């Protein structure tokens, strides 16, 4: 259904129009107005109501229905009345998922600790919560420290060490720092000159090929 009520403006405390001229000891429902225009409090807790010099308890002594106030007991003709609208309460809670963008973040608000420890969605993936990310311990990413499997399935992407693709150029380390196993039915490629670190082995299964270019 469409929104009913006043504009959603914060603040703006108001004294509403006096309705005591309508009190007759019988009526319990009255229209609330401000400057002659209908006023929609939103809830009984957003207004302060005094009847006969006594502040009324919201929901118990009166209720609100759109722009109407409904008293539990009919005001007497001798009762005076005033009502103060306390403005619209602003609730500051947790933003909805995906509701905050880069424009809302202040410069320097994301620290290295947050990047390393929290799930932060980005163009390269999700850090600390999926296998893809930037400066992550997950299997695929930039500056990653993990590797999975032995490249035994087609389409499996694995990255370990320093690898860069810049303007069409593939840039890798000259030193093989971790043992390499080229399994059966697979081929490998090294860009030389290449140095194999002490204690590191390069194993090529029968029928497979390792090419150094």
Task: Please explain how this structure is put together.
By secondary structure, the chain is mainly beta. It has 3 domains: 14-85, no CATH class; 111-160, no CATH class; 171-213, no CATH class. It has 1 helix and 21 strands. It has one helix at residues 112-117, and strands at 14-15, 29-31, 33-34, 37-38, 47-51, 54-55, 62-65, 68-71, 81-85, 121-122, 125-126, 132-134, 140-142, 163-166, 169-172, 175-176, 180-182, 187-190, 195-196, 202-204, 209-212. Strands 1-9-5-6 form a 4-stranded antiparallel beta sheet, with no helix packed on it. A 3-stranded antiparallel beta sheet has the order 2-8-7, with no helix packed on it. Strand 5 (47-51) and strand 6 (54-55) form a beta hairpin. The two termini are 69 Å apart. The model is unreliable at 119-129 and 151-155 (pLDDT under 50).
Give short descriptive properties of this protein.
3-stranded antiparallel sheet; mainly beta; 1 helix
The chain-level structural class is mainly beta
Major beta sheet summary: 4 strands, antiparallel
Distance between the termini: 69 Å
Given the structure, what is the number of helices? 1
How many beta-strand elements? 21
What is the beta-strand fraction?
25-35%
Whole-number mean pLDDT: 77
Percent helix range: under 10%
Query: Order of SSEs, N→C?
Result: EEEEEEEEEHEEEEEEEEEEEE
In the sheet with the most strands, the strands line up as 1-9-5-6
**Number of structurally distinct domains:** 3
Rg: 35 Å
Contiguous low-pLDDT stretches (5 residues minimum) are 119-129, 151-155
Shape: rod-shaped
